[in-house]
Write a structure and sequence with these properties.
three-stranded antiparallel beta sheet, globular, 2 domains
Length: about 350
Amino acid sequence: MSERAAQLRFQPLDLRLRHRFTIARSSEDISRTLIVHLRARGIDALGEVTPSQRYGETVELIERQLRGVTVPEDELLDVPRALARLPATQRGAMCALDLAQHDYAGKLFGVPAYELFHLDPSAAKQTSFTIGIAGIEETLAKVREAAHMPILKVKLGTGHEVETLESIRAIYHGTIRIDANEGWTPEQAVACLHELARFDLEFCEQPIAAGHPEQLRYVRERSPIPIFSDEDSVTADDLPKLAGCVDGVNVKLVKCGGMREGVRMIRDARALGLKVMIGCMIESSVLTTAAAHLTPLADYADIDGPLLIADDPFAGVTYEGAQLRLPAAPGLGVRARTAA
């Protein structure tokens, strides 16, 4: 008798942003994401992937990849075995399936996802709030809207960096992180970071193009501001070559392949003496809540996806100002907003 397979259903979504979101390489008004509905043994579970063309993935591609996978119900609690049905390069598809499996496992055993990893929900972190690139007046309007947030992440990399930070610091006195999204050359990064140091910045994320750890080392050795990687730290396999080149890494579930791989990446980073930030894309509360469950393992969190969109169809992690509050419901603890 053949094993019964879990049922997978796919729901592409277009999430409307509150403001146009611009970084050094792109702008968007809509974030495209894919919700995966998994049903097995009477349990309905959720997964999500918000792919980035920066990594060669789209919603349509990932849906095709997942439609080619059959996962027997008996494998659902064996995350490595189920994910092995996908090529290791299909990390977006792995992420969506991994999340659905952890949601399923938590619901099956009646425990929140953080308990599956033996984590303390009271150790969840505060999140930063991201300010995309815009003209000065628009930027200041966004900062005023976010005045209650104690941590901002300011996108840079297209010029006017000093003017932007000078204007923000005139009205905002909380913690500021910056992210150039590969926008500078190593020489530009060093010069710019020296100019920006007077604005009391916590760290700078991915100042230069990925793929050149020796250039990151050059920047870090000359920078008065700590350096974190993002586009350079996709999976745990990327970390050994970053040791000594950066102060910390940004771990994103979409990049590495889900919660299980996220935990492995965090532990490998710790072993290499690297600090850890858990980040997100512009995504719904399904994926953001999964990432929030892992923030007790991190030093920093950048988990603001639902705060950047106007029409999140799900509810999960909540925000007390910047403090992440993890849901106590089983699994990811996410529900559709239309549910009773």
